[in-house]
From TrEMBL:
Catalyzes the first step in hexosamine metabolism, converting fructose-6P into glucosamine-6P using glutamine as a nitrogen source. The keyword Transferase applies. This is Glutamine--fructose-6-phosphate aminotransferase [isomerizing]. Its EC number is 2.6.1.16. One of its GO terms (molecular function) is carbohydrate derivative binding. GO terms for cellular component: cytosol. It is found in: Cytoplasm. Keywords: Aminotransferase, Cytoplasm, Glutamine amidotransferase, Repeat, Transferase. It catalyses: D-fructose 6-phosphate + L-glutamine = D-glucosamine 6-phosphate + L-glutamate. It comes from Cryobacterium melibiosiphilum. The chain holds residues 249 to 617 of 617 of the full protein. Residues 42-181, 214-359 form the SIS domain. GO terms for biological process: carbohydrate metabolic process; fructose 6-phosphate metabolic process; protein N-linked glycosylation; UDP-N-acetylglucosamine metabolic process.
Length: 369
């Protein structure tokens, strides 16, 4: 039931505040993250982990890429994020102090399932982040942290993505506490930031009309580029994936720092480029670098659409369109910045008369290798 929405995707995008809130519910007690699902490992075992390998495909892998920044910063454990199908077939080094974390909305993605089985046979402990109760991947894992996004029907993953990041951040904070890598004041501060996210996503959703207008003049675009830096990089990749799968437009995401190493050659007059801009307050060292990237592409005629924090005045002179997101600490910006990119892909596909819930050639759950 679409509940009055034009598509399941529109409904699911709108449900994102609840997807995050429900994933946090019961897992924060007096401002402290508690994940009973991990109790069986014991805190000492989690404290002994030397390396984390995140395995996933598609959008779930981008959630993993976002979480890498938080886990390394907070829990000080090295994290590799690997596509399940690449991991499985390259003789990866797995040691008994390696923790494998799989991420899957459906819990049935064959590539990820095979990677989890492979890792466990090699002696790793595997935790699953999954949105589907009782699915195969959680059953094949040592423990599962369920996301509570509710059923996701549209092929394009949206609310599951933000719920995955929320669950991974809970995991990162839990890990930081048992490993003693963050003090209690910092733990409380980050946990409070996480709890504030549902309301900030709701505020971001109010940009829907601005995004729809943008989409209407872009229906003839042949290619769209997405730039991001730090946690904005996986969001650029996700924005490009959404546009490919829904609107059948060639789209590529780049790390903004790579621009001069090749991609800037693609910029010609009229080329639309989305830029996810880090906060000028929270990322004072990165913000000017991204603004300078914007100037470089603008000087070559790019049509620049900027996703920037409310009040970021530095981007205004160089942007054709600015979409604002609420203030958040840097690691939390992805949960907000992704929303206009999801809406954009959905609106552009709709404007082109395409089926946003069931794009061509795609299945919701990829149960073959
Ligand atoms: O069910 P999973 O999370 O394992 O699915 C992984 C990918 O197939 C999935 O995220 C896919 O990339 C989506 N269609 C993206 O919108």
């Amino acid at each position: 039931d679409k509940g009055g929405w034009s598509s399941f995707m529109a409904k699911e995008v709108s449900e994102q505040p609840d997807a995050v809130a429900n994933t946090l519910r019961g897992r924060i007690v007096d401002g402290v993250v508690v994940i009973p699902e991990l109790a069986e490992f014991g805190d000492e075992a989690l404290a002994r982990i030397r390396r984390i390998v995140i395995i996933a495909c598609g959008t779930a892998a981008y959630a993993g890429q976002v979480a890498k920044y938080a886990i390394e910063k907070w829990a000080k454990v090295p994290v590799d994020v690997e596509l399940s199908h690449e991991f499985r077939y390259r003789d990866p080094v797995i040691e008994n102090d390696t923790l494998v974390v799989s991420i899957s909305q459906s819990g049935e993605t064959m590539d990820t399932l095979m990677a989890v089985k492979y890792a466990r046979e090699a002696g790793a402990v595997a935790i699953s982040i999954c949105n589907t109760q009782g699915a195969t991947i959680p059953r094949e894992s040592n423990a599962v942290i369920y996301t509570h996004a509710g059923p996701e029907v549209a092929v394009a993953s949206t609310k599951a993505f933000v719920a995955q990041i929320a669950a991974l951040y809970l995991f990162a904070l839990h890990l930081a506490r048992v490993r003693g890598t963050l003090g209690s004041a910092e733990l409380l501060e980050h946990t409070a930031e996480l709890q504030a996210i549902p309301e900030k996503i709701a505020t971001t959703l109010l940009q829907g009309d601005a995004v729809r207008q943008l989409a209407t003049w872009m229906t003839d675009s042949r290619a769209v580029l997405f730039l991001g830096r730090h946690v904005g990089f996986p969001i650029a990749l996700e924005g490009a994936l959404k546009l490919k799968e829904l609107a059948y437009i060639h789209a590529e995401g780049f790390a903004a720092g790579e621009l001069k190493h090749g991609p800037i050659a693609l910029i010609e007059p009229g080329q639309p480029v989305f830029v996810v801009v880090p906060s000028p307050r929270g990322s004072a060292h990165l913000h000017p670098k991204v603004v300078s990237n914007i100037q470089e592409i603008r000087a070559r005629g790019a049509r620049v659409i900027v996703i920037a924090e409310q009040g970021d005045a530095a981007v205004l002179p160089f942007a054709d369109t600015v979409i604002h997101i609420p203030l958040a600490a840097p690691l939390f910006e992805p949960l907000l910045a992704v929303v206009p990119l999801q809406l954009f892909a959905m609106e552009l596909a709709t404007a082109k008369g395409l089926d946003v819930d069931q794009p061509r050639n795609l299945a919701k759950s990829v149960t073959v290798e």
